[in-house]
User: What shape does this take?
Amino acid sequence: AQTVTQSQPEMSVQEAETVTLSCTYDTSENNYYLFWYKQPPSRQMILVIRQEAYKQQNATENRFSVNFQKAAKSFSLKISDSQLGDTAMYFCAFIASNTGKLIFGQGTTLQVKP
Amino acid sequence: DAMVIQNPRYQVTQFGKPVTLSCSQTLNHNVMYWYQQKSSQAPKLLFHYYDKDFNNEADTPDNFQSRRPNTSFCFLDIRSPGLGDAAMYLCATSRDSVLGGQPQHFGDGTRLSIL
Assistant: This one.
């Protein structure tokens, strides 16, 4: 079975500081994709960052970057220079190439404090 | 801007009274999904359409059905809502199959309350 685990239900960070959200996954597949989605309170879920498993280079999108450790099946999200607008629930998600089904982790609620 | 639009944002219905939620997209994506999301939980896939082909998740209750009359629109019908069906319902699209890792684009969701 393919699973995604986010072990931090809630986190907080001071504005302008850096925070890392953890995600691990379990799969026997070799070809898959990983995502971080952000869901602000009462607002739309949006894609933050995407990583292809066959790429060793960690994906980066402005202040957001990942630490992808394929052997350890770990996919953490680092948010640098945290902003108040980063307050949201963050979901780690996984797609195996042979299933097409997006599997979400339980989510981490991040609070950025002024 | 191209987008995924869900109407209404909030829907209240009575126990057992059929309700329909709608989703439209201007992205011209082939695949449309319906998710159920309960408070502080991950979204749960109910079903999806690849073009006109309907794909139901094994654990989706029979009470939930869907229609996709054309590329742009998709509807979620709940035939006899129970109190346990109160949730946020998310519509999402992807350009083609998610095989190949194409991201899904989500609407704002419809929050359904059952009286």
About this structure: Chain A has a mean pLDDT of 93. Chain A has one domain: 3-113.
